[in-house]
Structures are given as structure tokens and as C-alpha cells.
């Protein structure tokens, strides 16, 4: 049974390909962080090596070893604390790819956060994508495919994983992870449909704490002076050069916050994502007009799009700071 929650379309396509033995030699799973890309990739590796009846069975020695990340033929290439995936990691991968499977039928290489492949690493990877050894499958995972080389993109079959419905996340948290319903409701809403985030938050109290701290500083910033805002823009721009996705995460968090303000303002407060921030949402919503809220959401979206298109981050973020609307004194 496929362990991944939701993503029926992607699972369906993989199942059909497995049955007809028409699997692509390389896949690209695209979707936001924590949406389920790694779980699906692990499931695919299991399905390829499973010795059970219904593949992936989840219970045979192959499936179990893969789930425990102990299988000799399933490798995850990842950042490991570095800012880029280097050519040395891809060369090492190619060495293993040239060997016959050791304990299973297929060697599977999962490249996590593939948008962080260095330019040399991407070019080196092309060789494997062009002439994949027999019984080797590659699965690239990326949140932002536009950062991948077009030549890499064109050699992979692309599967998009979208955020799950909130109710599905909530149900999975309650029934699979045994989270108490009230907490499941909050985490599901905060997850924006990315179940992996919610599951991590059930195991790590700090995650929710950090999120709320970050949100509090963004709310403070909206009533702060220009000096403070520019200092923050500089800090974010700096962070962007190290880790673009984390900056994208900050801006997404902010966007969800302003979207919630819009909902509260429009009388749809029951549908807010930040369910644990009801009071602050109510008081903040009073400070802005609907036009101001919509305007700033537009600015946020624009900034995110410009960053994705490689505009100068410092400039984009400073312009964004200028467009924070002036609220009434709270
Ligand atoms: Zn199995």
C-alpha cells in the first residue's frame, strides 16, 4: 500500500506505469516543502523492489529496509548542511549507479532539493539522465523547478504534488498519527496543506514556537519604523543568498497572515489559517482597510514572483518594505 497521504493522481500514474513496466528512468516530483515528495519517492523505491503481492506491500524485507533507509540500493542525495549539492556527490552517485543492484532489483537515487544542485553537478548529472544504466531510477525532488537546468528538466517525467485539502491533513493527523483532535485542527490549518510540516510539528514543539516567533516579528514590523524595515530587508536578502526557500517560507507565512486579515475583515474569520492567533488577527484587522490588505497581498505576491525570476533580492525586499500599508494606531 502506498503510504503517502493524498496525491492520488501521481500515485495512479506511477501504479499504471509500474503495471505496464513503462516507468520513466527519471522523475521530477515538484511541490512545496513537506508536501509529501520524499514519502512518495520512498514508496516508489519500495514498489520497484518489493517482493510482496501488492507492491509496495510495506511489510516485506525490501520495503522495510527501504523505509528504515537501510537498503543498499536506495540512496538519498541531499544537502547535508551544505548550501549546494556538489559535483562530488553526483560523481559518487554515478559510481554506485554503475554497479549492479546489491540486494534489490533496482537502484534508486533520490535527489532531495534538486534545485540546489550546483551548475557543475547538474551538468554532470546530465550524463546519467541521458544514458541511464539499466535498473537505475532517478527521482529528483524540487520545490522550485525553475531553478533547474532546462536540459535536466526535459529529461525527467514531471509529477506535480499540490498541497492537500486541510480536512485530509486533519484526518491523517488524527487517525494515523493519533494527534488529539483539537491540536490536529490547529496544525492542519497552519500546515497550508503540507502534511509533513504538521507531522514534524507534532514531534517537535520548537517548530510551532519558531513559526509563531517569526510571525510575531513580521506583525511588529508592520507597525515599526523604516529603519527597522530596511534592516530586516537586508537580513532577508542576506539569508536569500544562502537559502532561497527559507526566505520564500517567510514571505509565504506573511502572505497567509494577510490573507487571514482579509478573511476576518470580510466576516469569514472561521476560515483563517492562523487559528491560534484569533485575538491578534481581530485587533490587526481593525487597523487596515480591505483595499490596503489586498494591496499589500498583491505586493507580496509580486515580490515572491520577482525573487523567483532572479531579481536583485535587496531591491525587491526594500520595495516590499515600502509597500507595507500604514495602519491605524492600535
Ligand atoms: Zn514489499
Tell me what the structure shows.
- The protein is built from 15 helices and five strands.
- It is of the alpha/beta class and 330 residues long.
- It folds into two domains: 8-160, Rossmann fold; 204-322, Zinc Finger, Delta Prime, domain 3.
- It has a five-stranded parallel sheet, sandwiched between helices.
- Helix 9 (195-203) packs across helix 10 (205-223) and helix 14 packs antiparallel against helix 15 (313-322).
- The longest helix has 22 residues, at 244-265.
- The protein is globular.
- Zinc ion binds next to helix 3.
Keywords:
330 residues; Zinc Finger, Delta Prime, domain 3; binds zinc ion; 15 helices; 55% helix; alpha/beta; Rossmann fold; globular
Question: What topology emerges from the helices and strands here?
Answer:
Elements (H helix, E strand, L loop, with lengths): L7 H12 L6 E5 L6 H13 L11 H7 L6 E4 L9 H11 L9 E5 L7 H12 L5 E7 L7 H4 L3 E4 L5 H10 L5 H10 L4 H9 L1 H19 L2 H17 L1 H22 L12 H8 L4 H19 L4 H10 L8
Parallel strand pairs: 1-4, 1-5, 2-3, 3-4
Helix pairs in contact: 2-3, 4-5, 7-8, 8-9, 9-10, 11-12, 11-15, 12-13, 12-14, 14-15
This protein binds zinc ion.
Amino acid at each position: 500500500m502506498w503510504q503517502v497521504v493524498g496525491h492520488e493522481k501521481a500515485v495512479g500514474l506511477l501504479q499504471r506505469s509500474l503495471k505496464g513496466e513503462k516507468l520513466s528512468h527519471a522523475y521530477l516530483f515538484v511541490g512545496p516543502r513537506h508536501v509529501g515528495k520524499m514519502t512518495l519517492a520512498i514508496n516508489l523505491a519500495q514498489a520497484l523492489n518489493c517482493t510482496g503481492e501488492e507492491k509496495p506491500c510495506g511489510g516485506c524485507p525490501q520495503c522495510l529496509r527501504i523505509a528504515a533507509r537501510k537498503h543498499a540500493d536506495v540512496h538519498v542525495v541531499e544537502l547535508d548542511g551544505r548550501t549546494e549539492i556538489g559535483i562530488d556527490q553526483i560523481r559518487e552517485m554515478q559510481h554506485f549507479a554503475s554497479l549492479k543492484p546489491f540486494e534489490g532489483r533496482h537502484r534508486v537515487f533520490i535527489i532531495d532539493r534538486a534545485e540546489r544542485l550546483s551548475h557543475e553537478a547538474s551538468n554532470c548529472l546530465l550524463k546519467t539522465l541521458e544514458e541511464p544504466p539499466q535498473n537505475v531510477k532517478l527521482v529528483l525532488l524540487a520545490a522550485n523547478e525553475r531553478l533547474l537546468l532546462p536540459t535536466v528538466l526535459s529529461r525527467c517525467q514531471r509529477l506535480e504534488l499540490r498541497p492537500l485539502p486541510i480536512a485530509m491533513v486533519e484526518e491523517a493527523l488524527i487517525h494515523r498519527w493519533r494527534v488529539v483532535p483539537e491540536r490536529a485542527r490547529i496544525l492542519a490549518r497552519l500546515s497550508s496543506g503540507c502534511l509533513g510540516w504538521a507531522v514534524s510539528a507534532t514531534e517537535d514543539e520548537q517548530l510551532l514556537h519558531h513559526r509563531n516567533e517569526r510571525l510575531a516579528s513580521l506583525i511588529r514590523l508592520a507597525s515599526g519604523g523604516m529603519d527597522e524595515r530596511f534592516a530586516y530587508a537586508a537580513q532577508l536578502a542576506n539569508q536569500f543568498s544562502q537559502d532561497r526557500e527559507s526566505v520564500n517560507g517567510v514571505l509565504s507565512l506573511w502572505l497567509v497572515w494577510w490573507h487571514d486579515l482579509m478573511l476576518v475583515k470580510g466576516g469569514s474569520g472561521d476560515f483563517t489559517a492562523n487559528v491560534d492567533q484569533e485575538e491578534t488577527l481581530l485587533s490587526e484587522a481593525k487597523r487596515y482597510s480591505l483595499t490596503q490588505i489586498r494591496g499589500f497581498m498583491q505586493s507580496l505576491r509580486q515580490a515572491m514572483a520577482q525573487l523567483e525570476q532572479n531579481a536583485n533580492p535587496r531591491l525587491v525586499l526594500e520595495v516590499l518594505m515600502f509597500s507595507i500599508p500604514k495602519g491605524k494606531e492600535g
